[in-house]
């Protein structure tokens, strides 16, 4: 009897556990990761300082529909919290509340509400944050107003206002309330722009110093985001044909991301055919037929907050023309030249100079420019940036150190009517890889997507399951 009862209890426990786990993936960072990040921050904070990290505001998509919520990467980094309407205080020195309890952090979070949660989703609430995120001093956001703390006593109040300053009272009323209470308790004025920017400079310096060096846990996430993005690019190479639309290609890319569990894209997916490939941040992807042209795809998955940034440029019909090959090869060689400079202690500018030299020399040889220094007409952006929780991740200097992850992304863009032979017009090529800086060199994390002309053409000759996807033609609106 007792055995039977125990079995029933055991089964109930197992079912409850697996039920709870079904709600979300189990490979998020542990609470220890976030606690270690807060400790690392405390070590580099100045004496008598408090760091203030706000959640991002929610954003209106249309009327009563919001964009999918995205947390402030700093708040996620230091806490693991993914919900809106919150503020985290991290203190350099241990503090005491009026009951004599010592604390090093204070966290005000979204209040639980069964009624609201049945509409907009589950919330951790105070108890959930204590248990799951391991931060002991947690309160409901609306208790911050009356919480007894004098922030003005600190020598350094380090904060950065949520984007597009002073969140609107109609769009994000709870966050606006938290900001107001903070301003009062810290006795600061957001109108004093020099104070605000001094605080933000220190905020960026400290968070940049931490976030630019990736921990082993973060590298797991980044490797995953990058590999997923590469498989998406490879799938498109196999599936692509000249009748596809830019949107359809974007759809295949993002389907593959989601198939692997990547929740989001790290930035608006760029799929530009021909002339559209010459628009650097083209994201409307409106061309209904890519045709016999190059398709530039700058598409990166975001996995548990970490964003890849990978670009491949492919001929929609599977074969590069001679002119396309010549431009592509210059960009490829520029990338290789930049790779060779990379190692612990090298600089962004050394990598850029190496790529610039190859591009200017190449364009000159083809007669596209008459003077080497005119290469900037056709290569208008920078070579490299950090990636991480932001696709353009924070950094603190131009020096590259082991365990940084950066992009190397040279490009050549020759819009129609450019001052060169017509045969080059509407060719836009960018190749972008994500590399980990190591002690002696680098590791290319995005090797999973073909880069060379030969490898791309070979991949494109393969078949994709999307080739067999047949949907009914639309009956409406004919
Ligand atoms: Mn990039």
UniProtKB/TrEMBL annotation:
State if Signal is listed as a keyword.
yes
Residues spanning the signal sequence: 1-20
Which Enzyme Commission numbers does its entry carry? 3.4.11.9
Q: What class of enzyme is it?
A: hydrolase
Q: Which cofactor does it need?
A: Mn(2+)
Tell me one GO molecular function of this protein.
Answer: aminopeptidase activity
Gene3D superfamilies, per the entry: Creatinase/methionine aminopeptidase superfamily, Creatinase/prolidase N-terminal domain
The UniProt keywords, alphabetically, are: Aminopeptidase, Hydrolase, Manganese, Metal-binding, Metalloprotease, Protease, Signal
InterPro entries from the UniProt entry: Aminopep_P_N, Creatin/AminoP/Spt16_N, Creatinase/aminopeptidase-like, Pept_M24, Peptidase_M24B_aminopep-P_CS, X-Pro_dipept-like
Q: Does the keyword Nucleotide-binding apply?
A: no
Against Pfam families, the record matches this protein to: AMP_N (PF05195), Peptidase_M24 (PF00557)
Q: List the catalysed reactions.
A: Release of any N-terminal amino acid, including proline, that is linked to proline, even from a dipeptide or tripeptide
Q: Which domain of life is it from?
A: Bacteria
Aminopeptidase P N-terminal domain span: 29-168
PANTHER family assigned to the protein according to its UniProt record, in alphabetical order: XAA-PRO AMINOPEPTIDASE 3
Family, similarity comment: Belongs to the peptidase M24B family.
- Please identify the protein, giving its name as recorded: Xaa-Pro aminopeptidase
Q: Which organism is it from?
A: Pedobacter boryungensis
């Amino acid at each position: 009897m007792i055995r039977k009862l125990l079995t029933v209890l055991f089964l109930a426990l197992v079912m409850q556990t697996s039920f709870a786990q079904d709600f979300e993936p189990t490979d998020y960072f542990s609470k220890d990761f976030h606690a270690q990040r807060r400790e690392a921050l405390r070590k580099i904070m100045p004496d008598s300082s408090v760091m203030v990290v706000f959640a991002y505001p929610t954003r209106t998509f249309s009327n009563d529909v919001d964009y999918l919520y995205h947390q402030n990467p700093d708040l996620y980094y230091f806490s693991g919290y993914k919900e809106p309407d919150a503020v985290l205080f991290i203190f350099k020195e241990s503090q005491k509340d009026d009951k004599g309890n010592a604390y090093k952090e204070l966290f005000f979070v979204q209040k639980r509400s069964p009624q609201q949660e049945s509409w907009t989703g589950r919330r951790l609430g105070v108890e959930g944050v204590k248990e799951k995120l391991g931060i002991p001093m947690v309160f409901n956001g609306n208790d911050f107003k009356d919480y007894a703390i004098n922030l003005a006593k600190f020598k350094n109040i380090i904060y950065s206002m949520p984007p597009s300053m002073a969140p609107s009272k109609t769009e994000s009323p709870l966050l606006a309330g938290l900001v107001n209470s903070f301003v009062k308790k810290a006795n600061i004025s957001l109108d004093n722009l020099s104070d605000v920017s001094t605080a933000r400079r220190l905020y960026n310096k400290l968070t940049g110093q931490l976030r630019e060096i990736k921990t082993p846990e973060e590298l797991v996430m980044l490797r995953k985001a990058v590999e997923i993005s590469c498989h998406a690019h490879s799938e498109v190479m196999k599936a692509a044909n000249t009748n596809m639309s830019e949107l359809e290609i974007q759809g295949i890319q993002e389907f593959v991301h989601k198939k692997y569990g990547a929740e989001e894209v790290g930035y608006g997916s760029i799929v530009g055919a021909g002339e559209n490939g010459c628009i650097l941040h083209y994201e409307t992807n409106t061309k209904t037929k890519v045709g016999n042209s190059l398709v530039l795809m700058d598409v990166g998955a975001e996995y548990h907050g970490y964003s890849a940034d990978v670009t491949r440029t492919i001929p929609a019909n599977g074969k590069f023309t001679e002119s396309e090959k010549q431009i592509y090869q210059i960009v490829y060689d520029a990338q290789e030249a930049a790779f060779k400079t990379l190692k612990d202690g090298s600089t962004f500018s050394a990598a850029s100079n190496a790529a610039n030299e190859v591009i200017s020399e190449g364009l000159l040889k083809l007669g596209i420019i008459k003077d080497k220094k005119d290469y900037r007409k056709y290569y208008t952006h920078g070579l490299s940036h950090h990636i991480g929780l932001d696709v353009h991740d924070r950094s603190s200097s131009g020096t590259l150190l082991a365990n940084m992850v950066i992009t190397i992304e040279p490009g050549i863009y020759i819009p129609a009517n450019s001052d060169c032979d017509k045969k080059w017009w509407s060719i836009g090529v960018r190749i972008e890889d994500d590399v980990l800086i190591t002690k002696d060199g680098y590791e290319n994390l995005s090797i999973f997507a073909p880069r060379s002309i030969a490898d791309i053409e070979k991949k494109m000759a393969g078949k994709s399951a999307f080739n067999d996807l047949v949907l009914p033609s639309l009956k409406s609106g004919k």
